[in-house]
## 1
Amino acid sequence: MAARKPAAPGPVAFTLNGGAVEMDAHPMARLLDVLREDLRLTGTKEGCGEGECGACTVLLDGDPVCSCLVPLAQVRGREVVTIEGLGGDHPLQRAFVEEGGAQCGACTPGMILAAVALPKHATLAEVRTGLAGNLCRCTGYEAIYRAIEKANKPSAVRRQPPGGSVEPKE
Amino acid sequence: MGIVGTNVPRVDGPAKVRGTARYVDDITFPGMLHGRTIRTTIPCGRITDLRFESDPAGFTVVDWRDIPGENCITHITDDQPCLVRSEVRHVAEPVLLLAHEDREALLGARVHIAYERGQPLLDPLRSTRFHKEVLIEQGDLARGFRAADLVVEGEYRTGHQEHAYIEPNGVIAVPEPNGGVTVYGSLQCPYFVHHALTRLLGLPDGLVRVVQTEVGGAFGGKEDYPSVIAGHAALLALKAKRPVKLVYDRAEDMWATTKRHPSIVRHRTGVTKRGKLVAMEIEVILDGGAYVTLSPVVLSRSCLHAAGAYRCPHVHVEGRAVFTNTPPNGAFRGFGAPQTQFAIEAHMDRVAEALGMDPARLRLLNALRPGDTTATGQTIGADCSALAVLREAVRRSGWRRKRAAWRGTNKGIGLALFRHGAGFTGSGEERLASRCSLATSERGVRILVASTEMGQGAHTTLAQIVADSLGIPFEQVEVAVPDTAEVPNSGPTVASRTCMVVGRILERCAHEMREGLGGLAPAEHFRLHGPLVVTKQYEPPPGVAWDEEHYRGDAYPTFAWGCDVAEVEYDPDTYEVKPTKLTLVQEFGRPINPVLALGQIEGGTAQAVGWALTEHVVMRDGGMANAQLTDYTIPTTLDTPRLATVMLENPYAHGPFGAKGVGELPFNGPAPAIVNALRHLGIDVREIPALPERVMEAARGRA
């Protein structure tokens, strides 16, 4: 892997949700603060500030990262996607609403972005490993698995009877 | 075709998945300052010197002398000061408040506090100061023990638990031109905060306004604590004459705010050789911490659930919530009931072991049936499903086969039978006298309640209840933002009461409104006649009576019932316990929205798995030593077992569309079921969290 050039001084230019932005902030400013405070993109949440909870997850060149641990200088020339960049009608967004994958919503933007980054047709084991860095305190995760499964198979409309039972799928 | 019983998508869902929902930290006001709380670092003593040592330019500084009203946080009693004057009772107690427009400057501010240290009381067993005592007596205990063939004794302990909502506590206080204040915040109970603020600030009701912002999880952790943080922000804002945002970071939230009460519960049980319970003597000790907060009612619920889901003619329950020099413990999902049901359920497996009886069979023999009475003399009605949930859980989980086949392996299976009283304890609902309103609007009708949406789905289920009660499409029902300037006091959003109690009042509002509409659609009526508002107050179900002084009568209008079966894998080299699957069979009347109800069951279960196995609050010199998510570990996807859920229905006559409460029930079962699965492996664990080091100790006697 080629060594990256040392960060040049001056504004940091990167791609944010498909558009070009230039930020004249401290190079060590947390990407999380730049997004939330300078750019007013408050969909990205802070849960712990130390990379444990994943609430601040964004995609950096397609990979999920904790934006509380990423200094602004590191995104120079790279592509950042936040929850606002999904457009609002992504199959995962719809499925999270329908299946109860979102309750309080604080982990939800990060969780959905982590789910976007999962391999296509991920197995349940891959889903669990892929989301292990995103804490949810509300759902017990089962509804999140159901939402991801549903988003992957948009044609499969599952009707759940009132009451009844729900067996986990392997 | 009605909307109740269907999985209508939650009304707050789209904004949450798009990131447009506005939580308190997402909101700013022009000229807003940031706040910071300076706290004590000793558990007990006296402040002898307090000095703000930075350049005061740009700072607003508040201490106890700036409080215009009473220096207290209004809960059940007034013992807790808003800001310490001199006496220190616990670590992280608030002393001084700072505000500044620049957060870096705020964090850099230096404050010197000198103390005269006292001798802290940290062991609840040595405490002789009681926040509350409870005594429940049924029958004649001595007679019961005389009838017993076998007596089994045991002590069971549970630890602190941190709520770990993903969004920490936070508020913004805005001074108003009329001399009043508006607080926007992440909170469960707007009127609790409103009441606390009027007393702290010495303001009339009309000058204090509390508005709920989107809440990123609460679980009881935003029931009592917001009265503290709102008071702090309001004091700063009124002094600075500018809006002040006070949002805790994770470390401060974990270090300073309330936790689940640690418990020590002792059982002495008499049983006949055929397995019939004849005497239960139970002692309950809860560590309340340094101030009373909600401990009396937590203890009450603890004791009222201490005998579990069983019938027994002779019962004696004695409980106390004690003072220690630790941060006060408060509300947390289950509110005392999980602690005592952990004890009874772990104990029941030891009774079964002593009898050489299958644990499921012992429970089948003793489970409450309709017509039985509880320890308070409450007659259990047809809304009891103890046997049904137990039988279904045994059948569904393959209990008998796995119980036999796994003997001698490193796999274990255990179960727990439990209940949860819905609504406030005793005559609590009558005292609250909750009011709800429905008003016609341009869209149709508007629900006006102080009950908050914090992820549980309350606003969606209430709208479903109103839609069907009025016979209008769901889309025509909207729910007002809980704002004390606009909504009546429908009570706090706690105690598994919102759907059952608030939903019932709204159902009655809807029935009356339907008559007033004269056949018109609500929106049409609004256009022609202006707003039609119907307000109703809580009415107790017929025949419910409670004697608070003697703890006799109907402790709860109804109970929800559950039976959980836990399957675990044990690693004899690392002593780690991995829960692989939980079967959850729960009856809570009838689900108004099955997807949302399922979310309560699965989510509550996962929290309880953490309480059972990994969530360890390490207390050192009276303060939490691991106040960060790095070493206080809540379950991730990989720690959470697979969950198979069965929702049984047994409609409750006095709940809306047959609903009881479901919010807390799921928390009561998982921990004892897991510990009982360990017992199946021959590992005698009586204290949670069952960390590997505790399991190692307990496994020494394993064959």
## 2
Amino acid sequence: MSRLLPLAVVIPLAGAVLTLATVRVARAQRIIGVVAALATLGWCIAIAVSVDRDGALHAVMGDWPAPIGINMVADRFAAMMLVIGSAMLAAVLVFAIGARASDERSPWYQPAYMVLMAGVSAAFLAGDLFNFFVAVEILLMSSYVLITLEGVDDQIRSGTTYIVINVLESILLVMAVALVFAATGTLSMADLPARLAALPDGVRLGLNLLLLLAFGLKAAIFPLFSWLPDSYPAAPSPVTAVFAGLLTKIGVYAMVRTETLLFPGSLRTVLLVIAGLTMVVGVLGAIAQSDMKRILSFHIVSQIGYMVMGLALGGAAAIAATIFFILHQIPIKTSLFLVEGIVERDTGSSILGKVSGLGRRSGWLALLFLVSSLSLAGLPPFSGFIGKVGLAEAAVDQGQWWILAVSLAVSVLTLVSMLKIWTGLFWGPSNTRGAEGGGMLRHHPLMSGITVGVVGIGLAIALAAGPLYRYCERAAESIVNPVEYETTVNGQAAGR
Amino acid sequence: MAILIGILTSVGVYLMLHRTLTRIVLGVGMLGNAVNLMIIAAGGPPGEAPIVGRDGPFADPVPQALVLTAIVIGFGIISILLAVAYRSWTIDGNDEVEDDISDRQMASVRDPSDFVEEPDDRYSQEELL
């Protein structure tokens, strides 16, 4: 099992090669793409089950031991992210095929998408900082291609912002990697905690801040978020759905790893303040917008705040709540953008007021939107509520009342801006200014089927909250006590 | 070495702060090379090639492997940036990065008080699109 861990990266890469080989046959490309995506998903589920039963898995490439060779580690947190990530990637791929979007018809879409999948898997599995950097580069490279694939004016403009910001982020990350290596002489996540603990406080703080800056830029936390609402809406909806659901969460994933494993317990207050500001600024930005895509993009920022809040509170309970929140956020965000994609495809616009009364023209779509937006806002029966209760409990336990107040206020504001979309797009009389008059909308079965599926995953997370939350608690346990992580990596290396 | 890294970094940052893409590309190149040098500097003093059978102080192979990877990635980044800059040039005739939609919308409102009094800004956006 351990040795086959890299299959999660190899399958999509093989898919990329095959789709490149069949670049002239669109149908073959689609079949290969979907098969590769489903195979990756299946393998990730197998990894998750095995990790939960037998503890963390560890694989080294070419039998070079850990500090020199490339190593991959899957603990519970990584395995869970792998499963939900590859599930979303597979779902969105099918959606994009159904949407027949102009970019999906490009022969380069499938290869770029496959490489993106490989990058996502590699990032979650990375066992040292440099491999993480390489994985992030892989997925960023393909995201550059995907965001500018059509090559129209607007995409190039906002794609440029996206690329330059992310290039800056990569440079900061390599800089941090170089300095960490200079200070400790290792980059393996398993060796770093002990070596970093031995460093003087000032050096440690500097390294921590530099890593936080790089990952924070990726995760779009408060002072570093302004690139996101500008660039995401320009990409075609299926692409935005993946970016929104996954890419920022990789930044959060890296932040959780660095703050718990490498620098436990430092900078708590700073992170807490950043979390509060991220939530507030994100949600206020969302309320001010009048395009559904831009509103949702600002909500990405706002929800990142909750994840950082859990991370800042620290301790097993808060980390468990954070993990659960990330787990719920990925399908919810993806489904909201998929609904937006259907609206935009079937009516030609997603600007509130230009399109209205969709509730009459397509009850199903309205229902899908309602379920996922209530879940985003965190109303009781849905999954967002459970994650937020966990975060709130952790805040109460630690006596951080102000962040509790901020997070509750932001929840209400989230609901307000979701209501704005609801009243603007779905409620009220049907708008006959739309391209095809005011008749009932007919959706493509693949698109609506996948959206129902993704919303269903969101609901399933709420229904299966008990076992899932316990899984998150176990994952948080192994994050807070990284002994298991270290012995898995170093124990195998020494036993060779 | 440290001074060289410092010079490259500052020149790179200065160039990246410009609005024209060609300068940004040059800045990225400078910054990337500064970081590559930094990784090499992190590897400690030079020495023999670390091959089994030789003796003497070895050079640390890890940063060299890292820097090779980083150089390749830097090449990829610069080529995609150049491609985007070229595309931007064929579309617009220049390679400046424009403001985003919201900025242009705000800028199109001459008097800020108008913007506040307007009940809904969707109309101005509709005109723009």
